[in-house]
Amino acid sequence: IPHPPFITNSLSAQVWYLHNNVYCLYILFLTFWIQVLICRNYMGNMDMNEIDHFMPILMKREEDAEMTPLVTHGSTHFLWIKHSNLYLVALTKKNANAALVYSFLYKIIQVFKEYFKELEEESIRDNFVTVYELMDEVMDFGFPQTTDSKILQEYITQQGHKLEVGAPRPPATVTNAVSWRSEGIKYRKNEVFMDVIESVNLLVNANGSVLRSEIVGTIKLKVVLSGMPELRLGLNDKVLFEITGREKSKTVELEDVKFHQCVRLSRFENDRTISFIPPDGESELMSYRLNTTVKPLIWIESVIEKFSHSRVEIKVKARSQFKSRSTANNVSILVPVPSDADSPKFKTSTGSAKWVPEKSVVQWNIKSFPGGKEYMMRAHFGLPSVDSDDLEAKRPITVNFEIPYFTVSGIQVRYLKIIEKSGYQALPWVRYITQSGGEN
Fold first, then answer.
1. Of 16, 261, 329, 405, whose CB has the highest number of CB atoms within 10 Å?
2. Looking at residue 352, which CATH number applies to its domain?
3. Residue 149: closest CA among 129, 134, 159
4. Beta bridge partners of 430
């Protein structure tokens, strides 16, 4: 590929180019010129020089502050995403399904990360053979194929290949109608472990008013079952209870529900039944979101006092606002302090406090915080003699915690039925966990 005139300085970026339907797949590394790391041409009917137009267009858009996820050159459309210093770009001359293309690109990132931990130039260079094999499996003649890393890892490994005698046999998961689970799985003890995990995202202002409130939930499975079992999961879903005439029961209204591919969507749409043949081992069955107003589970009040501009004292009161039968574990309260503070002194009614100067915060750790309890922490710092009105303590106080056997939304697993043709007995285990989210 000739020296591109648009690159005037040394860039550290890589371009991963693939054409729709998808026609070909490139991994490129940019220095003073474009160097192709890996190329896989799926259909052979695309001009291989089209990729040369992508970076000039992107750089011009960036200069003009007109960055968009789709750029065009002539009749060619570039759909791109960025991961670290990688650009993943899909090219098409057709009216392609953009959502499908982007979904495929993000899925490819996930597959490579699960293989190589990090997706970057070094991991590509160090795993050429594995990358080529994965590129052949995830795409066939321009159409996406198997993109489940668990299935791919059954026959594409990072160990050396052994010479096999006789004709090679395709993996059962490739020819099986249930591509996410192999046949012939056997266990001595059959069990299913289910975790219902809810993350609470809250943003509260200084007056105590809730500015933002959201619950993000996931249901995770660890399946240790023989054969090809069918599972049926029942939740206290509001829509289901309205259909069956049980509106007085306690229910939750799930929003933005996303299922694993194993769930039969047609049954869920018809009668809200969650029926599926589960993958073996660990997987995420579903995720959901609730836009509902909830009170802070751990309420924080803080008072800051400055004395003669030479020292500051911060008083923090933490109160748990959930029932006494529940307990928050590993509570961490991060209280912002001025960046120029020094000589820290702490006093707590429970737990321990420490100064984290690189983050300009006091970290108050409480191993066990029962419901209905209230604790205090005092922090004393020295300040430089120079007066500053920049109150960095206006940054929000962050609270991290985890409450087992408790959900904020009230979601409940009503039943988990396990049906297998051999009729073995299996034990289902359900655990509920509430934890802090990204904003508190």
1. 16
2. 2.60.40.1170
3. 134
4. 194
